[in-house]
Amino acid sequence: MKNRIILVLFFLSSVSSASESDMSLADILNLKIEVSSSTPLNIFSTPSIVSVVDESTIREYNFTSAKEALRFLSGVDVTRTFLSRNLPTIRGLLQDHFNNKILILINGVPSWNSVTGGGILERIHPKDLSRIEVLKGPASVLYGSNAYVGAINFVLKSESGSNSFHTDIEPERNGISMGGHLTGKTSMLSYYVSGSGRKSSRTPYDESSDVTEDLKDGIFQDEGAYQGETDVNTAYIDEFEDSNNFTLQLESQHELFKADILYNAYSNGTSYLGTPPINNKGTGLAAEQKGYIVGLTPAATLLENLVVSLPVSHDVNIREYPTARGPNQKARIHGERLSTGLKIDWNLKKYITFELGYGSENRQSVQYEIVDPRDGTQIQANNMVGRQVKETSIYGQVGFYGNQMEEKLPFSVLLGVRSTENEKFDSNTSFRSTLVVFLSELSSFKLMYGQSYRSPSLFELFFEDPQSTNEIYGNEEVKPETSNSIELAYLQSFAEFHFVQLLFYQGVYKDKIARTRRSPGSITDLSEEFTNGDEFSSSGIELEYRYLNQKIGTFNLNYSYIEGDDGDKVDDRYNFRFVPKQTLSAGLSKKFGNLSTSLLYSMIGAVEGNPKLDENGSRIGGSHEIDTQHVGDVNIGYVHKKVLHTISVKNIGDANIEVPEYIRGIKPNLTYNERRSIVYSIEFSL
């Protein structure tokens, strides 16, 4: 069957054509970045630090998921916990089980679960995107809460006639994904439609000897040793990540009026490690996420250079995951978020811009219950049904762009402020300011100061589990998180084919919300509650270098160094104990006529990891250290009648990448479990 699928796809490719994007370095550097400002600007002018994964890079290294593309960037990682997968981090600031510190946007429309605050990466296939933009650093002035340490914007393709079909096959493990997109334009309407589905390979969860140290032998068994559901001491886990998504973007423009409509729906299923890792405690059962967002942004030009827009969006996210109470009980989270706003953009002059806006969000927990998955019967309500919080904000920005004047001045200045009112907390005012000095058209120096704010999620405020001792409890006394940062950046393109972005930053984080033991001295009560931690800080260096010459090849180097303190230390555990100080990724690609090759290498620095514990949870000295780890990919592509065939060997060294289990410390380490795989990919136009 696998061979038949490959033959059919190869036949289709011989009668079709694929769109191939061979962007020059100048084209890439002139892309108008949307995530960092209401006025799209190129990378030298934009008032924030932004990294971009463009469609050429996605194709060169055959990125088949958002996490692969994001891990390529400096200062960005995608990790996991025992509850959740694909948790992005920026500059080492760890998430809880839910991605509520980095905002996820699709064409500038934010989406996240109103109960947990968590945004989802797996909402669109990277090959259906024009690019992925990552804003690194505080973004609350731009976007409000949940853009605490940054934002990720998935930018859809917009050029008319960009129609393609793509598929990725893992023959050895029966994994397959298929998808595609269509774009078009009439006199008054342009459209984008995409959809994709993925049935991933089933990979046994495989722990190394270091991971199982100090754990009871036999917690994770191979398939042959698994004795069925009656054996409560073992668990066999086939890990997987399945996903389906659909996206529709419509844009209508008529003289002085414009309207954008976005619809995105997704349904994802993943394996669940469970805690404790025992088969009758939920281990190995599927966790599911689904939802949709509808966004409408009408805009009208009222006066010359004065545009008024009224963005509105409705965001629905549902998550189900197993509990430690067995296969017949699941937690179901249903959150809805209604966001409305008013935004005024006024270009007083070509070089002076004003932005003024108002935003209102109503976040509701429709459901957070323990249910019987067989019939949906409610078993427990968890103090969450009907909980809601309203948050409003007023924001403004003013920009002066001296390089746009007739008599050019070599600098630009942006000042921004947002005042937030949340009915549960005191008001907050956050500021941002950026000075950009243009050394030339292809060189700039940036000095940035930013503040950020994140209000606690409904889950962090209200959750209770009256039927369980060892659970997490919300805390209505918990305060919002805030931060301050300063960034210095130098950007330079030289000799036509080279680009470098070098950055130094320092950040101070206050009141980070974390889990702490309610009864620290108890060996039977392991329950936790959300509390605010003490202030801590970090500083770091990020380097991005790119060489792109269509005749010779491309080379990418992304490096990050982080130094964080232990100001938030509780019981020998603190954020930067679990973060590698150094990460590096490098890529090399070359074309030989219709043949292309690329190599991708990643280095993940050493991590101290969890303190060692005895069977009663008491510290016994030492740490579950993780040494420096290495991963490499090899890709070979061939263009046949403008159809791109690619064979990739991902993780060619079969490394089992370890990450600390940083939330509860129940297990010393986890693994990505993304072992060596061979992927055949094909992309062609419809």
By DSSP, the count of extended strands is 40
Instruction: Give the biggest sheet.
Output: 24 strands, antiparallel
- The best one-word shape is globular
C-alpha end-to-end distance: 24 Å
Structural class: mainly beta
* Share in helix: under 10%
Return the CATH topology: Maltoporin, Chain A
Q: Report the CATH superfamily.
A: TonB-dependent receptor, beta-barrel domain
In the predicted model, the low-confidence regions spanning at least 5 consecutive residues are: 1-20, 207-234
Architecture, CATH level 2?
A: Beta Barrel
Total number of helices: 6
- Percent strand equals over 45%
Number of domains: 1
Look at the structure and give the mean pLDDT.
87
Q: What radius of gyration results from the CA coordinates?
A: 25 Å
> What's the CATH class label?
Mainly Beta
GO molecular function: siderophore uptake transmembrane transporter activity
GO biological process, one term: siderophore transmembrane transport
Signal peptide: 1-18
Main location: membrane
